[in-house]
Amino acid sequence: MNSSAFIWLIVIPVFSSPVVYLLGRLGVQQKIIRRRTHLVRWTAFAALLMTFVPFLLAVRDYFQGELGILKIEAIWLQVDGLSLLVTMVVLILGILVVLFSGPYMADEIGEEKYYAMLLAMIGLMIGLSCASDLFNLWVWFEAMAVSSYLLVAFYRRQPAALEAGMKYLVQSAAGSVFVLLGIALVLGSTGTLNLAHLHISAQSSPILLAAGALFIIGFGVKAALVPLHTWLPDAHSQAPSGISAMLSGVVIEMGLIALLRVLTALSGESQAWGVILLAFGACNMLLGNLLALRQVQVKRLLAYSSLSQVGYMLLGLGIAYYTGQSQGAQGALFHLINHGLLKGLAFLSVGALVYVLGISLGNHAPLTIEDLSGVSKRYPLAAIALSLAVLGLAGLPPLAGFMSKWQIFLAGFESHNTVIVWLVVFAALNSVLSLGYYAPLVNRVYRKEPSPAVVAGSSLPVVMTVPLIVLTLAVVALGFWPGMINWITQPAGIALLKGF
Amino acid sequence: MAGLLIWLIIGLPWAGAVIVWLVKDQRPRAQHALAVGFSATSALAALFLVTLAGSEKAFSLPMGNAYGELTFIPDGLGVFLAAVASVVGSLCILFSVDYMRGEAQLGRYYSLILLFIGAMSGLALSSNLLFLFFFWEITALCSYALISFNNDDPKAVAGGIKALIMTQLGGIGLLAGALVAYAYLGSYQISDFLANAESLSPALLGVLAFGFLAAAAAKSAQFPFQTWLPDAMEAPTPVSALIHAATMVNAGVYLLARFYPAFEHVPGWKEAVMIVGLVTALMAALMAVTANDLKRVLAYSTVSQLGYMVYAIGVGGVFASQLHLFSHAIFKALLFLSAGAVIHAVGTRDIRLMGGLGKEMPWVRNAFLIGGLALAGLPILNGFWSKELILEAGAEGGPDWALALMMLGAGFTGLYTLRVYWLVFGGEKRSSLHAHDATLAMRISLGLLIAGSLTSWLLAGSFNHLLCETLPFHEIHDLALVEILRVVIMAPLTWLALGVIGFGMLVWWLRDRLSWLTRGLGWLNSLTAHSFGFEWVNLQIIKIVKGLSGVAAITQTGMLNWNVVGIVGGLIVILIYLGWSML
Questions:
Q1: For A82, which of A162, A306, B304, B419 is 20 to 30 Å away at the CA?
Q2: Are B151 and A436 a contacting pair at CB < 8 A?
Q3: Which site among B63, B115, B151 would you substitute to test the A interface, given the most A Cβ atoms closer than 10 Å to its Cβ?
Q4: Among candidates B562, B567, B323, B348, which has minimal Cα distance to B461?
Q5: CA A155, CA A163: separation in Å to the nearest integer?
Q6: What DSSP designation does A365 have?
């Protein structure tokens, strides 16, 4: 039985985006309301809350064996385990970011655009996860990217934000061209763009190999594979903190998801893809860690740490492609979820501190590690949230990051392949190395002598604490009970390897 | 029943950790009371569990794909370590009521200690390798956070991070072991691993054996990872007593004992274990002789005593090592807490500034003296019996030269113990420090530990019996207490060892007449001051990593042109690889 009700997952956020914008603009111009802040943010919140209804229905349908598919002429949208997993992370992080952004973005110029773009980006990411042919995959991907450029360069009066947006735009555009070229090669040599058909029919050929290389580079720019990552530290640190959380937590992973969809379709060479992903994974882990070690700005440090976290996902995925076993993919997708939660938590708690120590006082200077001194005294919640987030990213138990890294490492050992086993050891060494920059953050936060910035800080609004509490509980719960997420990582990992 | 108790032993301290944190630092009295209450209840549960020890699973919960089953087995090794952790833990918390009075951030302090106690018991009782590692890492996390409890002090921060990174580095060995067990044997259960280890290829088993040795050495501060423990002394003293003397540092010895049956036939493994223990025991004893920081002397002596336990395992004396672990946990906690009382009273850790404190704090002096005699290994204290048993095991299962060196180490132990006792409590005052004797909470915890040091050896027989009964893979001779005592007393080795220890102490008495010797050994002094060059190695590693980080920074040019070069370059590399793989 087929069902197309899942389309509301995409429709609600995407169509509420212009509504939010118009409400904000017209409401203020017609003097219907005095402050747009409350109107736009709660409308956006309501829209996302509503989206959970079709999500839950789609989950139910999926586990009842109903195929979620919608065909409009040649455009097919289809729900599988991977789409549900992505939707879940995007929606949870999205709604928390909207909640968090309330005070953070209050009365910024263009506040209504912020929520409109955020909603659009969320809807487009969900759409991307359901796309089942190459061309539409690319369209969703580009549309999502456009909304994210605007959000990165949201503080348009700050040169640094504009520079970051510019780099992001140019590099992504370069990647985009490669993807289009790849699509042309695939269409020219096989005559189809449908991923499922490609998966069944595509024979190994030099042209398809070249297309695969183009896809890896094209989508890899967004996924921040080293050496295509150079836009990332600027973009993630200059964006408003809520957007940093979205970018690091889900947007870069969307590049990975798009890439995986395509590589699975070109399955004739999956061992080669596995090797390439493993190589990128090793580079990402090492370079991300080495660069993060030198950072003094907290958001930049977290941005670099995203590079190394993507490296762990690549490791798991590479193992899965190389061996054909889904354990690595499951681990990588579990890590994707955990990274979304942990990095979301890290950016939101840092964002909360940026807000109370800077933005609420009209100061937009970047937050440095020194400013964090003694934060725990006045902001105990933000302090523990940030500490747990970074320790979780370093892979310490009892936090979520430990469990997903474990599953990835286990997949490596299950391959019984010496090189992969050594790569796992290398990854473990990298986790130790990452403590070199995570641990000092925690030490700073728990100093007894507060920094001048902390002394002068304002108080933390209650509504900003909600996302911190939710995410903190989630990362601890997943650390104790990793099995509770199996219901989604397992089908997603299997779906990933068999191509719908 | 045992399953419920295990939940209480781990769950109570953890629940306490959350509650104490939630109570907030504005109510310190409530925090003290809650911490004592939760830890003491858990200690009672742990003592009760000892009576229910067995070799069957007490609890089992499937954790889903890739994570196996969470299981706990209350066998002899496990229950005794859990009991040590929660009993000594609750005594240290009780001691903290006085020691930490008026300190800031009490909530964090107690939460972390309680989290540690629960994790340590979990580590001891877990019979699943994944969760063994899970608890293992939580103890490392707590240790790090408590070492740098005083985050404003850069030395404390550096010490904490150093401890964390070094133990984690070694921990990779254990991680690999757990992964191999599941990937090759299909189970995380330790019993499955011990039963089927022979079916692994010799090369793999060898890698595992040495991986576990690395993990144990890092955790127990053994050669070549010994440098983190002295720096860990920046922690508040009750923490040093609990984590860095009585419990966590023993986890490495425990690990070796636990997996001994799987690795004993791996070529070279036992010898390696023996040499690691031997080198550490001697090196650390020498460093203890020359150190001038009260806590560092005790830290070096901990490292040295751990070396004795590791040596014991290397020569096949699993029971001796565990008995010494037990004795050491008690007398070293006693020594550390007494030292804490001294430091709390005089406000310095430099023993050159102390002296003559015995008159002002007789209570603490007596406690320290008893702990010190046990450390030196004099009868009839608990340290005497266990140390002699280790030397017995060495005579039976190890080469004579190693035994001779270990005897020499025992002599050094006598020397540095007497030295530190004398410099702190004996002689004349060397500065105008004012001291006061231990207060009530301190006296209770010290008193119980004194009682332990005097009598814990009486449990040797039942402990031995428990290990025999509940460890199906270990070969331990069932000896009653009387037989154990007879073995020790009848052995000529015992009297020889006592002679050496006495000689070590004599050297301290005759120090003025032996000044020619101290001058002649000046080079040794500078060697110990530089930790035999190991600090230099650590610094070089840090320097290399920083250098690499600097090189990496060059790649982040911030220029769009170069960024696009990266993209195109990446494409070219992939195309070349694909072209090459098609050939």
A1: A306
A2: no
A3: B151
A4: B323
A5: 11
A6: P
Shortest distance between the Cα of B15 and any Cα of chain A, in A, equals 14
Torsion-angle region of B10 (φ positive above 0: left; ψ -120 to 50: alpha; else: beta): alpha
Q: pLDDT (tens digit, 9 = 90+) per residue, B362-373?
A: 889 999 999 999
Of B172, B184, B564, the CB nearest to A425: B172
Q: What is the rounded distance in angstroms from the CA atom of residue A114 to the CA atom of residue B103?
A: 46
Q: Provide the residue type at B525 as one letter.
A: N
pLDDT 10s digits, A62-96: 888 887 888 887 788 888 889 999 999 999 999 99
Q: How close is the nearest chain A Cα to the Cα of B291, in Å?
A: 28
Touching A: B residues 40-79, CB under 8 Å: 62-67
- Count of A–B CB contacts within 8 Å? 181
Nearest-neighbour CA in chain A from B135: distance (Å): 8
Chain centroid to CA A367: how far? Answer: 22
- What pTM did the predictor assign? 0.94
Nearest residue to A413 (alpha-carbon basis) of B407, B182, B73, B387: B182
Q: Is B228 within 8 Å of B171 (Cβ atoms)?
A: no
What whole-number distance in Å separates Cα of residue A210 and Cα of residue B579?
9
pLDDT greater than 70 at residue A28: no
Q: State the Cα–Cα distance between residues B258 and A122, nearest whole angstrom.
A: 51
Condensed to tens digits (0 to 9), the pLDDT of residues A380-390 reads 999 999 999 99
Six-digit token pair at A22?
């118009």
Question: pLDDT per residue over B126-176, tens digit each?
Answer: 999 999 999 999 999 999 999 999 889 999 999 999 999 999 999 999 999
Q: Which of A496, A317, A325 is nearest to A414 (CA)?
A: A325
DSSP string covering A387-427 = HHHHHHHTT-TTSHHHHHHHHHHHHHHHTT-HHHHHHHHHH
Exposure class string for B62-83: b at 16+ Cβ within 10 A, else e: ebbbbbbbbbbbbbbbbbbbbb
Give the nearest partner residue to A443 out of B157, B558, B563, using CB atoms.
Answer: B157
